[in-house]
Amino acid sequence: MVKDLTIGKPSAVLCSYTIPMFLSVIFQQLYNIADSVIAGRFAGEDALAAVGASYPITMIFNAVAIGCNIGCTVVIARIFGSHDYLHMRTAISTTIISSVAVSGTLTAVGLAICRPVLQLLNTPANIFDDGALYLNIYIGGFVFLFLYNIATAIFVSVGDSRTPLFFLIFSSLSNIGLDYLFVRFLKLGVAGVAWATFIAQGVACVLALITVSARIKTIKVTEKYSKFSFKTLGEICIVAIPSILQQSFVSIGNLFIQRLINGFGSSVVAGYSAAIKLNTFCITSITTLGNGVSGYTAQNVGAKKFSRIDSGFAAAIIMSLCITVPFSAAYFFGCEPLITLFMKSGNAAALEVGKAFLRINSPFYCVIAVKILVDGVLRGTGWMKTFMVATFTDLVLRVVFAYLLSPAYGTNGIWASWPIGWLTATVMSAIFYVFNYASRKKATA
């Protein structure tokens, strides 16, 4: 289904467009959480810690995939909004060809450096080998993750947020089932968790690419289009590279924080691993809404319907409250049973670490939601530098304050660095939105 986001009531259009995306992220995060729950429950605290210690490294690879997803979505949505279908076919073909080359290169690099990076992070010896094993299998399947993200971006850019939902439901349920089979019954431990993701993601990727190919063929063009264009690749890179850098630097910042956390021992790593998976569930849900705002904004920029952008942004703010308030309440008041899901009984130290992280950070989810939604508007209108400035400020403050506060306040000092970074970056983003608004008003004058 192809959907034009430039017509209809903005709030209704944005809602129907983003709800399937939100449901997709729910299933995606459920299987990410299931990896850690099954590892912690059936393979033990060290297995949970090993998966958690690998998490910041896997997020760097995810950052590249997500950045390319954003670049593809914004550019193709903008072209689709202008109804230039010939250019759109070239953009899609160029994106897929480039993605195969990039993902293959990153896979080779990742397999070569995963053990040295774990050593640099001061990974505890008792979880090092399992962490390296998990990473090798995960990185080996990175090409599937990357191309799946690209397929999803193509669907979303033409207004179809439902089809990716079906693939994600299939992938998530398959992953959870394979996790349980490999770890609970076949006793494969951390390797079982990694292989479950590899297989489920691989099948979903192949099915998504087949469907994309069939769907794109239904968009008829009257002239022969170029299969690859360096000019079009440049248009995508203008959006994708800043997005990749933004995502990557956040992930690199998390590596510094992970190294700090690793110094407190495997029990702290295990507690943090459980809490950060729950935290990521909320943040990724808001980020998905922000990506929806990017696609919506880009289509309306392409159609030169600038007045619809602010109406869509206001609707997104209301939607974000519907997401963040329940997450904040659940994590603040119900953190103990949620963290306990990841662990066998008796892991008191890890439990307390996870509870502290959630209680310190969950009240500020509504704050970071504003920044993420402003980022969506800025990306959709092509203001890449401004949102990067706010994001890097968040990152730098988070890392600096983690190292400054931890000597005096221990792990609670590390957790407090999150809201400090979020508050500062959100104020900056709000200022950038005002300037962006004024620029759009001037363009329509």
Explain what this protein looks like in three dimensions.
The protein is an all-alpha fold. It is built from 15 helices and no strands. The protein has helices at residues 10-43, 45-81, 85-120, 125-140, 142-157, 163-185, 189-217, 230-262, 266-302, 307-333, 335-340, 348-361, 365-380, 384-409, 411-444. Helix 2 (45-81) runs parallel beside helix 4. It is globular, with a radius of gyration of 21 Å.
SSE order and pairing:
Blueprint: H1 10-43, H2 45-81, H3 85-120, H4 125-140, H5 142-157, H6 163-185, H7 189-217, H8 230-262, H9 266-302, H10 307-333, H11 335-340, H12 348-361, H13 365-380, H14 384-409, H15 411-444
Helix pairs in contact: 1-2, 1-6, 1-7, 1-9, 1-10, 2-3, 2-4, 2-5, 2-8, 2-9, 3-4, 3-5, 3-8, 4-7, 5-7, 6-7, 8-14, 9-10, 9-12, 9-13, 10-13, 12-15, 13-14, 13-15, 14-15
